[in-house]
Automatic annotation (TrEMBL):
PANTHER family: CUPIN TYPE-2 DOMAIN-CONTAINING PROTEIN (PTHR35848:SF6), OXALATE-BINDING PROTEIN (PTHR35848). Gene3D superfamilies: Jelly Rolls (2.60.120.10). The keyword Transmembrane helix does not apply. Pfam families: Cupin_2. It comes from Corallibacter vietnamensis. It comes from the Bacteria. Residues 35-101 form the Cupin type-2 domain. This is Cupin type-2 domain-containing protein. Keywords: Metal-binding.
Length: 107
């Protein structure tokens, strides 16, 4: 197990959703931690995690998150919780890149 990582040395990995790339920081049994870069105006469509909770912390930029049909606007240092089984999506509503930290944990 790596006890130290220089995040700047990790490469951004292009995701399956256009405009989203990530750096996998740590993967433990039942938990994953990553940085995600969101391109301007990119949208991660509505989806549900049937067996994990997810937490998103905005580090740079702004996003809009829809959680169970309610829209929230976020800025740096804001945190969102996406519980098991709840529909959610995110969009970068600005013309600037956004960086978020995402932690997911099995329920």
């Amino acid at each position: 197990m790596d006890y130290y990582k220089n995040v700047d040395e990790l490469d951004w990995q292009v995701g399956n959703i256009v405009g989203f790339s990530s750096k996998k920081l740590l993967s433990l049994t039942g938990s994953n931690f990553k940085l995600v870069k969101v391109a301007p105006f990119a949208t991660y469509p509505v989806h549900v995690h049937p067996n994990k909770n997810e937490v998103l912390l905005i580090l740079e930029g702004t996003i809009s998150a829809t959680i169970d049909d309610k829209i929230y606007k976020g800025k740096p240092s804001d945190i969102f919780m996406f519980p098991v089984g709840i529909q959610h999506s995110i969009i970068n509503t600005s013309n600037k890149e956004c960086v978020v930290f995402i932690a997911s944990m099995d329920n």
